[in-house]
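User: Just a sanity check before I run the rest of the batch. Below are the structure tokens for the first item. I only need the designed sequence back.
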């Protein structure tokens, strides 16, 4: 008999607030913890700059394999069976794809899928932004505090 278990793969702060945008009900295979796949979103990359990110799995039975099933994966990037995405993206754009994680539970492999989006921004846009930031004047406001000023509740040490 298959037992179903609710699994939440959300950020800890969201989960502690009692909100879970990605609730999943997964079958629990006898003797193996439910398998889940994270993240909900991938960090963006920059065209022609090295990219590296590891897809995480939780629960399940090791070894766990992660594989690409459909959609568009950025040219220049590859993903290992352990979920490590590496390489140098060749073009900018938004790439949407589906991944599946499969564990090695001895009583029956568990599979869980996740749709993800990876945004690769243009290297030229990134360089233009950095150039604009570098050429802006830095404005600081410095306020001197007299040495005789004391802070309420703070004892001054006998020697500074």
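Assistant: Here's the designed sequence for the first item:
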């Amino acid at each position: 008999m298959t037992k179903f278990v609710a699994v939440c793969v959300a950020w800890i702060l969201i989960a502690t607030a009692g909100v879970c945008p990605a609730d999943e009900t997964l079958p629990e295979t006898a003797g193996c913890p439910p398998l889940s796949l994270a993240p909900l979103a991938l960090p963006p990359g920059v065209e022609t700059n090295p990219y590296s990110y590891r897809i995480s799995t939780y629960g399940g039975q090791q070894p766990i394999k992660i594989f690409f099933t459909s959609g568009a994966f950025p040219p220049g990037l590859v993903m290992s069976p352990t979920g490590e995405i590496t390489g140098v993206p060749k073009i900018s754009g938004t790439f949407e794809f589906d991944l599946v994680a499969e564990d090695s539970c001895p009583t029956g492999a568990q599979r869980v899928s996740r749709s993800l989006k990876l945004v690769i921004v243009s290297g030229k846009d990134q360089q233009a932004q950095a150039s604009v930031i570098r050429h802006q004047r830095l404005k600081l406001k410095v306020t001197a505090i007299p040495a005789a000023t004391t802070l309420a509740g703070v004892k001054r040490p006998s020697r500074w």
